[in-house]
Amino acid sequence: MNKKIPAICVLALLLLAILAGCGGEKPPTDPVADNPAGDLTAGEGDNTPAGGAKYTADYLPDKNFGGYEFRMVSTTGYGNPILFGDIEEETGDTVADAIYKRNRLIEERYGIKFKQIGVEAWPDLTPQFKKSTQAGSDDFDLCMMISREAWAMSLTGAVVPVGRLPYVDITQPWYSQDVNDQMTINNKLYFAYSDECLHMFASTMCLMFNKKIVEDLALENIYGLVRDKKWTIDKFFELSKKAVADLDGDGKMTETDRYGMLCQCDIFYPCFWVSSGIKTIAKDPNDLLVFAGDDEKLYGILEKVYQNIFGGEKIYYDSFIDRAWADESRGFTREQFADGLGLFLVGGVGDVSDLRAMETDFGIVPFPKYDEAQEKYYSRVVDGFIYCVPNYAPDLERTSIIMETLAVESKNITVPAYMDTALRTKYARDDDSQDMLDIIHANRTMDLGDTFYMDAVRNIYNDVFRAKKNGFAAAVEKRTNAVNKELAKANQAALELE
């Protein structure tokens, strides 16, 4: 087994991984089971079955693969254990050590040896996968790719569909049902998010709020609003406006004043339609892609956000627009939040760790609902690195057994380490935040127009916000033909893979 880089604190590096889902809007460098309606705790947020027993996959056979070297290609550039297929030794890092424990258990159970094939820069993952599949070379068993590129490779026939993996059962609780449902085309799923992919949870959007500001301004209990199902877009903006303050009294809002929210535009605006249950790309009765981005409810949401942002005093600080369109600007808003200059910070679950030194207590909540009538909260997944099976894979039974075991033992070992120990005990500062993380984890969803087709679809709306020229319907009308052509191309490719 090749030597890995040290498994340094995983959570301190999650932000870099999250950026992978925000590409397509330059110039920054390009590098989350449905919950029953109304139930804020049931679903994927439960990490163990009733009574604390371990999850099991009784349908997996007893096998010994005689020391087979199971090869997994992944990126090593971030030094981030959650992006690795393997960890060579225990170091004391909670999540990395959980991955180590999981992998050694699987190696012993099936008589295999994991081999890490490291690619330093994540953009090099897809070229490696493409080169190998075109040549039909047996170079690896699984290859990690960012999801939008995995989608593109799937439509070329280079990825083995999940339906051909005999021991992968995506109905099991260690799979993210809602997200995986979005990723089918022509009734086929080419890759599936399971609890093996911690990166997807780290890339799930949430809101962090400053408890001292809430107390000082005598604002409503935000946790209570979530639990009472009254945490809505209107309430979010109402509280945000109350927090705005020209601290230096110079008559203008600058980076040293206090805002209702701190964010970057590329991760901010789409959260509102996804958390409202809107999909800009839907499916027809044959499970083919259809553009749905001209929806009147969507326009209403966008208009509401636009008017709250630009229709009065400046209530938010966008470090991409107000400072510089660069990766380091993401860190600047976290610094502002830590300094008490924002009520809310918009970010991914993985950003929580970067606030561990913050002296003032902060809380974590899901993005708000459209209105109180909406039955559940939806948590936007912006992206996630995922393993794909190459089309030349010689033994799909073996590959699927190892993949399914990685998923179920991640449910048993690595997710509890990430949720219960790393996020909750070390970083999330109260029991309420722990409950909120369960809600966020249980209600992850994805809009293909926000992820796989971000350039063609998501940027239509983001460009209107960035230009500060209201006109969402006109912008959509102008670009609908181009979107339809791109989706038609994808649909045709999927049909030809019959």
Give a quick summary of the entry.
The protein has 498 residues and is an alpha/beta fold. The protein contains 17 helices and 13 strands.
Structure commentary:
The protein has 498 residues and is α/β, with parallel strands linked by helices. It has two domains: 11-25 and 38-202 and 383-427, D-Maltodextrin-Binding Protein, domain 2 (3-Layer(aba) Sandwich); 205-380 and 447-496, Periplasmic binding protein-like II (D-Maltodextrin-Binding Protein, domain 2, 3-Layer(aba) Sandwich). Helices cover 40% and strands 12% of the residues. Strands 8-5-9-4-10 form a five-stranded mixed beta sheet, with helices on both faces. α2 (94-110) links the parallel β1 and β2 (112-119). α2 (94-110) runs antiparallel to α14 and α10 crosses α16. The two termini are 38 Å apart.
CATH superfamily of the largest domain: Periplasmic binding protein-like II
Instruction: Give the number of helices.
Output: 17
| Spatial ordering of strands, largest sheet | 8-5-9-4-10
Structural class label: alpha/beta
- End-to-end separation in angstroms reads 38 Å
Can you identify the CATH class of the largest domain? Alpha Beta
Give the topology:
Blueprint: H1 14-18, E1 68-75, H2 94-110, E2 112-119, H3 125-135, E3 142-146, H4 147-154, H5 177-182, H6 198-202, E4 205-210, H7 211-216, H8 222-227, H9 233-243, E5 259-263, H10 265-275, E6 281-283, E7 289-291, H11 296-310, E8 316-318, H12 319-322, H13 328-338, E9 342-348, E10 362-365, E11 379-380, E12 385-388, H14 396-427, H15 431-442, E13 444-445, H16 454-467, H17 472-496
Parallel strand pairs: 1-2, 1-3, 5-8, 5-9, 11-13
Antiparallel strand pairs: 3-12, 4-9, 4-10, 6-7
